[in-house]
Amino acid sequence: MTKINYLNNKDLLDEIHKSKNTYCSFIKSEYHQYDIILPDIDKINIRSIAEAKRNRAKRLAQEEYELHKRQGGKLKQTEFEINYKKILKNDLVFRIMTYEHIPHNATRKKNPKTEADGRDRVNFPPFQHWKFNEMDELICIGKSHWKGTVEKGKFNKEHGQITNNLARMFIKLCERYATRGNVRGYTYNDEMKGQAILQLTQIGLQFDESKSNNPFAYFTAAVTNSFVRIINIEKRNQTIRDDLLELNGMNPSYSRTNEGEHAAGLKRHETQEEI
Fold this sequence. Notes:
The protein is of the alpha+beta class. Helices cover 44% and strands 10% of the residues. The protein has a 5-stranded mixed sheet. Helix 3 runs antiparallel to helix 4. The longest helix is centred in the last third of the chain and has 33 residues, at 215-247. The chain is elongated, with a radius of gyration of 27 Å. The relative contact order is 0.13. The mean pLDDT is 88.
C-alpha cells in the first residue's frame, strides 16, 4: 500500500490516467499512453505530429532519468535528453476527444445543445486512441468506455474504477482542507469531509487533460464548494431551530443571542449619535 505524504499535479495526473484506463480497451497494453490530445482526427497534421514527437521524447527521457535515479545514479537530467526528430511517426499515439463510439440517447434531454447531451451519460469525456500503421494509414487502437476488443467489443461505462492511490489522494486532500482555520472549528467538520470525499468520487474523473494540466486546482475547488454547501445547510437548519425555540419561549443558540446583542448595541449607538 502506497502512503500518500503530499499531493502534486504530476502524481494526480498519473493516477487519473490509470483510473481512466480501467474503463478502456486497447489493441496492445502499451497503447494506453498517448503523446498528444487533439479535438478531432482532422487535426493530425505536420505540426501536431511534430508536437507529439517532442512530447514523446520528453516523456521517454524523463522516464529514463527517473529509472536511473531510483537505481542510485547521479547523472544529470540533460544527459538523458532525446532528439525528437529521431522519434518515428508510427510510434506516436494520438488521443482524439470524440463521442463517436458513445451510443445515442434521445430520451436524455429534450433539447440537446451539445453532442454530449444527445449521447449516453459517461463519467469522463470519452476518447479514442489512434496511430499510423506500416501503410501510413491511421487506425483506431483504443476506445474509452469500451469492453472487449476494439473491433468487436461494446460500450460499457461501469466495468472500471478509480485506483486505490487516487482514492487515498481524495481522502488526503479533504483531510488537509478540513484543518484550515476557517472550517476546522465547526462541530460538523466530519460531515463536511464526508460530503467532499463523496463529491470527488463523483466528479474526479471528469477532469479533462485536454483543457488543463492542473487537477489539484480542480479538486480543491470541488472540495471548497462541498464544505461551503454543508456550512450553508447547517446555518439554515440552525436558523429554523432558533426560530422554533424563540416561538416556544426558550433561549435560542449562542450565535443567535450574540447576533441579537450586537444588533441592539448598534441601535443604541445610532440613537446616541442622533441625540
